Structure formats: structure tokens, C-alpha cells
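Our example copied in:
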Amino acid sequence: MIECLGNLRIRAFTSSASRSPAGEGRASETVARAGSPSEARGQDDPGSSVKAVIRGRLTHSSWGPGMSAICAEPAIVRMIFRRYLELASVRALKAALDEEGVVSKQRTASDGTPYGGKSFSRGALYLMLQNRIYRGEIVHKGGAYPGEHAAIVDEDLWSSVQLRLQANGVARREGQATAKSNLLTGVLFDARGQAMTPTHAVKKGVRYRYYVSRRLVTGTKSEEGNRQTSGQRIPAANLEGLVIQRLRSFFADPVAVIESLPRHRCDAPSQKRATEATTEIVRALDDRRNDAWNTIFRPMVVRVQARLDRIDVDLSAERFVERLLETNYSDSHPGEGDPMPRRGEDASDSTEAVVRLSLPAQLKRTGKEMKFVVHGDGEERSADPSLARLIVRAHRLARRLAENPGWTLEDVASQQNMGGPYAARLIRLNNLAPDIVAAILDGKQPVDLTANKLMADTRLPLDWRAQRAALGFA
């Protein structure tokens, strides 16, 4: 396999060729021209590691993500760099290239399926504008080394583009810091199908994010008359976590993914390609990549509806197929007789084909707010700070009394800056069953057990079994 980029002289051999003795000889002969004279002599210098990696083992993936999609003629590369400086925006650059009909290189997969020949994505353009191969360099393990191929882009043009990219990146980070934190903006709807909008509240310096029905923000009256405005207010982190959890479980299930493909694209090559793509998606989530949502899921998720008994996540069937198979949806969806399967019932009013993922969850009140609760999902929860604080303060109060036999409860309460009646209620928490205390500290208490509910009446029975029943553990 030979990749060409201007007069770049590096040959990438397939693994089978490089494993054979003849293949290794040809690879060594070719790579000898890709390094410095010291590399050819086998001296120990930084460039020799580059040679060692390239010799006989440089494959198509060695070009880096998206490199195969942006292999272009030198004149086209220089034109793209100059147009970016003129337009100062990758989004505008993509629109201009689409209008002029500039597309990626047409290729054929090992199974004979054609791909490429499409308009450049913004991600590919970002990669092209930062690829040091165009400066006549080879990148290996974070270091850039001089190559023997001629530079396509001169130093002035390269430096100007990098400065512009850096300036735009700072502006995006400063302008979108808040928007990035609200993952479901623009696609979230409440149980009645009304749009929900992000909002937040600050208490004691802590920022709490919520999604609220838009009519609660605008003050629109309910449809039944002039009664109080109705709507939903859901903690953002709770809802976003459940949506991401459902997406991960779906993409981690190869059977579910393959069943969601068009029937005529369930052949072995397509299944293999889809499985590889889903593996990368799950890995991005597990690695907690900051760009995973915006680059992978945001283009696919077209609607999330927070119903009273479940959460529905709708993926665009078109973008779902394009993401997994790297092919046009029209090519994978010919005719009327092969519709994209619609997973789940009650598809939305939209005529767009979707892949629906549902997560059974009940919207319950916990303390002063509503929260989605998934029973038996085994999800790890962090301890409720308010409940944990009560347990800690109760034990501290008891310890102070034990350390000072001559003191009364009122004396210790005064030292701890609390009133006597409150201290009397608080100290009774030391009688809680050990497993109840452990559950509270592990965040495994019943979802409706809040600090206010626990302190409402601490005159609990001394029998541990009765305590569990009273607090909802039984």
C-alpha cells in the first residue's frame, strides 16, 4: 500500500508483507530514505526511534486519525490553509469548500465497499490545519522530526494558521464553558413534550444545575385554564448521567447495535465495521474524554424526553449509520421496503427515522427537588453530604460528652454552636443500626430519605429491624 501526499516518500506496507523476509527487506530499503544519514547508519539518536517504528510496520493507521480522509494534492492543501486565514473560521471554511465542490479522496475498503469522495468534516479540517507532515516533518510519540519529503506549506503560512487556531480555541473555551456543561440543551423535552431549558442556582458558593420546562421560565399558563403554571424541574447531573449510562449500555451491546442497522447492511463486513466503531465509542466514554459528547453523541441525539416513568433517547438513524459504517445513509437505505428499525414504542411525531433507546426510571421527589430513580440498576451513588454530615456531627457530639463527664448536653451543644433542643434530637442518631449508618455513608439509603426527613423525628425505635422499616430500608 502506498500513500501519496505531494512528493512525500514513505511507503506503508501491510502487516503481512512486513512479516515476510522479503517484505522486511523492501521496507528497510524504503525507510532508509525517510530518516537522516545517522539513522541509515543505525546510530542512537532521537530519529532512530522514528525509523524503528516505521520500518516494516507503518500501516494505514500510522497517519493518525482522519489522515486518509485528507490526503490531497499540494495545491489543494495550500488553498485550504490560505482560505482558512481569509475566513478565520473552520465552520466558514467547510461551507466554502462544500460550495466549491472540494471533497476527500475516493477509496475502496477491503470488502469492496467504496467510501470517501465526501465533503470534508470540520474535524478533518482541524486535523489538516494542524498536521505537521505538511511542514516536511514526521511526528512520533509527541515529537516532530525532519523528514526528507519537501514541505507543502511554508513557515509563514503555517505559523499564521497556528496562531489563528490558537486564538479561536481560546475564544471558544471562554465563550462555551457554560454551554458545554449542559449536555442536553436544545434536545430535551418534558413529559408533555414541551422544551426544557438549562438553568442554575448558587447556594453557599456551590452551583446547582437544573433543566426546567420552558413555560416555568416564561410563565405560560397551563392549557386547562388560569391555574398555576405547571412543568418539570430536574437536576441536570442526575438526568445527564442516566442518558449517558443508557447510551453506553446500548453501544456496549453488539447485538442491539446490529439489530438497529438497516436489514441489508447486516452483512459480515458491515457488522465488523460497526463493532469496531462501537468499541471506540465505549472506550471514549470509559476514558472520560472531554470531547466524547460533542463529537460522538451530540450529532446523533436528536431528542431526549423526560417522561414520568422513563427516559426516551432518540438517535438520528441517518447519523447513526454514518457514524458506524462511514457511509452515506442514502446508500444504506435504498427504497421504501427497507426502513430503519425503530426501537421501542411510541415514536415521536417527527417523520425522521430514529433509533429509540428507553430507560425505565421514575421521577420522584427527594427532599425539595424531583429526581429520576432507577430501581435495581446497581448504579454507584455518592453519599448525600447532608445525611453524612448529620451522622458525623452526632458522633462528634457523643464523643465530646464522653470526654467531658462533668459537662451537660447543653454545654457541649454550646461549644458546637448548636441549640440544646437540636442537640437532643441529633444525639439520638447514635442509636441507628450499624448497617443503616454504613448505607448512608455509602450513598445506598432509600432515595426519599433526606436529612430533613431523618431529623423530623429522631425518636426511632431501639430495635434495629423496626428502624429499617421506619426509614424505608426494609
